[in-house]
Write a structure and sequence with these properties.
Layout (H helix, E strand, L loop, with lengths): L8 H12 L5 H7 L3 E4 L14 E5 L4 H9 L3 E7 L2 E2 L6 H4 L3 E5 L4 E4 L4 H16 L5 E5 L11 H16 L4 E5 L14 E5 L3 E4 L4 E4 L2 H16 L3 E7 L5 H13 L3 E5 L15
Parallel strand pairs: 1-2, 2-3, 3-7, 7-8, 8-9, 9-12, 12-13
Antiparallel strand pairs: 4-6, 5-6, 10-11
Length: 280
Amino acid sequence: MRFRHLITAAAVAALVWTAAADGATLRQRAHAARSFAFAIGDGASTRDLSRYDLVVVDGDTSATRVAQLKRQGAVVLAYLSVGTIEPTRWWYRAAAPYRLELWGDWGEWYADTSTVAYRDLIATRVAPRILAKGFDGLFLDNVDMIETHPAQATGMVAVVRALGRRVHGTGRLLFTQNGQEILGPMLPVIDGWNREDVTATFDFDTGRYRSVGVTDTRYATAAIRRLRAAGKVVMTTDYMLAANLTARRRAVDVACRNGALPFTSDIGLRRIAATPLRCP
């Protein structure tokens, strides 16, 4: 099975490590991070991530692997999509009644967060089983679905706040990504934020990587500066071909000038550099 109900010895050891590492709280360690890996693509979590300070891996990652990453010194967050329902998840059958329309780019369904039962599923069944594996917190994806589904806004804020209470109650962290237009109500409960597509992106319509326009980059960096001013840890993730060194240099420069930790990869997040990108 991909998931174990019981908290293993590795998970317990990971929790002890979190509390003791360098005598610092998780929040302090996250703020001290100088490198970031968004390692949720196929096989990405098994790569050498020992040089990274802050890593996001899939919530299905084993407790043994989470403990290993934490022993190497990383703050380890579990990826969890709260705005979509993915068919490969162990909770898919329970979540299926709350599907909205299919999101064809990724083969998953938008979630009806306005339903109390869906929110309870995520907050009281899914998140606790993920966190039991020793993660330092959660990394919530697709909260920005409410930009195109405004009727879901109240429910989305409710589930994010519920997850914030759960992780903060045990001294852990809550990160989200994107959705800068709707961050206001969520800002008090998040510790960090990732902004995708600041300078480079993948165009699903053409099937090609491309640069982001100057206006859109300025819009993104304004949000990065806002989050930094609010005391949040901020990361950026830009998508590009490995050979495009010019695009990578621009991504790093823009992120660093605005106070964010840079990361670049392919759209599937399978490419993880052995040497992390770092700001000067």
